[in-house]
Amino acid sequence: MSNTMNFSAGPGALPIEVLLEASKAVEALPETGISVLCMSHRSDWFRDVIDEAENNLRKLLDIPDNYHVIFMQGGSSLQFSMLPMNFLRGTNRHAEYIVSGYWSAKAFREGQFEGEAKVVWDGEETGYTRLPSLNDLDLSPDATYLHYVSNETVEGLEFTWIPGLNDVPLVCDMSSNLLASPVAIDKYAFIYAHAQKNLGPSGVAVCILKDEFVKRANSTLASMLDYRMHIQAKSIFNTPPVFSIYVLMLVTRWLRDKIGGLAAMGAINRRKADLIYGALDTDAGFYRVHGQRPFRSTMNIVFRLPNPSLEKLFLEESQREGFHGLEGHRSIGGLRVSLYNAVSLDAAKALSTWIVEFLRQHG
Ligand SMILES: *Cc1c(COP(=O)(O)O)cnc(C)c1O
User: Is 355 inside any structural domain?
Assistant: First the structure.
């Protein structure tokens, strides 16, 4: 196995160039002569890193000036809780959630702990195989916020439209598809994404918050759980994950300089997904894609084979061929191909060829 054939769902593949530069930095940073693991978070060097990470994200995503960009710990799971703590606690507030898969169900659960949270659409009855259209959503115009997950990583379902009502603040967990293609940031009040699927190593999450939305936050929270504290401290309220933020910054550079931005990245990702789905669709009786066709994710391709022993064989043989990380999520089983930004077109080609070959031998 090698880093070039890693289809893991998370922590996911990172660009080889980034891995090489990060390994050198572990020994010593060229700028300081000190290991990145031993640099002070209060150093000028780190201030520059965090500023560049923020600026690169702003340029790549075209983030307007009335949005804050902060780096947080606790993964996306902490965001499931911080969101309702900051915005849902208190009277006359109610939040709405689209439950379209494993992760949005988790987010909803945490919302309920903090206040009145309501499900406006639930995909569980259809086994999380499809996503809603606007008409399916039971929305109210006075909701405190509407939450959804743009790409359901476990089931392989991706929104191709932006749900919600104009005056209701829209909150989105983009953990598995932020930076995979352009995003209309101004449609959102708050976007969050941990790094370990598509932006960098685990340990850091990116939060993009509209200033107007932040002003509605509760003022009685513990400092570490209060977005305003982190905004004020420019992401250095306490010791942040220096190494994770450094690598995330390298990834944003790679996207800017090597790939040429998110439109280009999106086009490459589309081609990769078409290759894999194309291979699976050569025999839809053998390879059974979990999600219905219009909702198929470009990032996570989830499918089953006719029986568990064939799935086991597929995993064993794929590993022997050098393909890593193809097992499905423990909650639904089966197989999953994750095609995050750092997975190359060549890697997708090699896997698609092998998928057809496996069918030829065992179909
Ligand atoms: C993986 C994932 C999570 C969980 O993130 P943690 O950082 O492990 O808390 C949340 N949301 C989505 C969409 C994910 O893919």
Answer: yes
Burial class (CB in 10 A: 0-12, 13-18, 19+), 15: buried
Cα 182 off chain centre by: 14
Judged against a pLDDT cut of 90, whether residue 219 lies above it is answered with no
CA of 127 relative to ligand 1 center, distance in Å:
20
The end-to-end CA distance of the chain, in Å, is 25
Pocket around ligand 1: residues whose beta carbon is below 6 Å from it? 10, 75-77, 103, 149, 153, 173, 175-176, 194, 197
Is residue 106 in a domain? yes
Catalytic center residues: 103, 173, 197
Between CA 221 and CA 229 the distance in angstroms is 10
Domain-ending residue, one of 229, 257, 285: 257
Residue 90 has pLDDT above 90, yes or no: no
Q: For a substitution probing ligand 1, which of 80, 100, 177, 194 has the most ligand atoms within 8 Å of its CB? A: 194
Boundary (domain end) residue, out of 257, 287, 306: 257
Q: Residues 177, 136: one domain?
A: yes
pLDDT one-digit tens code per residue, 282-319 = 999 999 999 999 999 999 999 999 999 999 999 999 99
- Mean pLDDT score across all residues of the chain: 97
Ligand 1 binding pocket mutation candidate from 73, 79, 83, 176 (most atoms within 8 A of CB): 176
193 three-state secondary structure: strand
CATH number at residue 283: 3.90.1150.10
How many domains does the chain fold into?
2
Name the residue range of residue 164's domain.
17-257
